[in-house]
Design brief:
This protein is mainly alpha-helical. The protein contains twelve helices and four strands; from the N terminus they run ααααααααααααββββ.
């Protein structure tokens, strides 16, 4: 009897009591669960790169890569979790990505010669915190005075801010660095003459696209070039619509009617109009342009285009 009690009854009682305790504890924890704030993911970073430097046993470069990858994941998660129908790349403050700069700052503290975070910061940070964007670019220049492209990044930031005088100054300084070529001199002159023109913007983004070493910067430059191309296309389409209206006394029934008029148009940057398989005139993102017959004007398809609707 003692053996039965020792080997079967007592263990069974312990198991039953254990499950009962777990059930009670689970109910208590469920009722008293701590509600985390919505911005819990944005809690301050536990470590600063400058404090880790010298204690990483030679792995500073690896840690810098980690912070860089985290910066991409951090902003990407913000976009994925957002309920916004569209993203305004000119102003990302609604996403409250306040840790993006600390991630990039940590990466460049650990590896001051890591160029990618500087270029990424120049592209993205102006839409979040222009002062932080300038600070990161200036940090890059201080750590890498021989890298003329960092002056290009800083000049781009000032150009985005429409501070053309300061942008010209930065491009001029960068043009004196060995290896900068004619581009920096050209941009310094452009800042003084036609800083706000599409031609200047196209030259800037084309250079950025051609020389980008990371897909994020390259993708942003490509998107901007598509936007500029669409603006030129819509100007040409409007001219063709006006010409057709004058010739026939009415607005065309569709954009297909003006295709013959567009064949002779030479667009800036050497690109051409695109026609899809259904003979629709499409924007650079592949979405058909729409004709507003009431005002006889062309517009982007808000549901299909990937371009900003300006």
């Amino acid at each position: 009897m003692k053996t039965l009690t020792h080997h079967f009854i007592l263990p069974a009682v312990v198991i039953v009591l254990g499950f009962s305790a777990i059930y009670v504890l689970s109910n208590y924890l469920e009722k008293n669960r701590v509600v985390l704030p919505e911005n819990y993911d944005d809690t301050d970073l536990a470590f600063e790169g400058r404090r880790l430097k010298g204690f990483a046993l030679g792995a500073e470069g690896l840690l810098a890569d980690w912070y860089w990858i985290k910066s991409l994941q951090y902003l990407g998660d913000k976009f994925v979790k957002s309920e916004m129908e569209s993203i305004n790349i000119e102003d990302l403050r609604n996403f409250n990505p306040r840790l993006l700069y600390p991630y990039l700052d940590n990466a460049t503290d650990l590896d001051p010669r890591f160029m990618v975070p500087y270029s990424y910061g120049a592209v993205v940070l102006p839409a979040i915190d222009p002062e932080k964007a300038i600070a990161l670019a200036e940090k890059g220049i201080a750590n890498n005075p021989e890298q003329w492209r960092l002056h290009q990044h800083l000049g781009y930031i000032y150009w985005r801010l429409k501070n053309y005088e300061k942008a010209a100054e930065v491009y001029e300084k960068g043009s004196r660095i060995t290896g900068s070529g004619d581009f920096m001199k050209m941009m310094a002159a452009a800042m003084k003459i036609q800083a706000g023109s599409r031609e200047t913007a196209r030259a800037m983004y084309q250079q950025m696209f051609d020389e980008a070493t990371d897909p994020q910067t390259r993708g942003n430059a490509q998107f901007r070039l598509m936007e500029l191309n669409s603006l030129d296309e819509r100007d040409a389409i409007r001219s063709a619509l006006e010409q057709s209206k004058e010739n026939s006394g009415r607005c065309p029934q569709s954009l297909q009617e003006i295709l013959p008029l567009l064949r002779s148009v030479k667009l800036a940057g050497g690109h051409n109009f695109k026609i899809d398989n259904a003979n629709n005139l499409v924007d650079p993102s592949g979405a058909p342009y729409l004709l507003d017959q009431q005002i006889c004007d062309v517009k982007l398809d808000p549901e299909r285009t990937k371009l900003p609707q300006s």
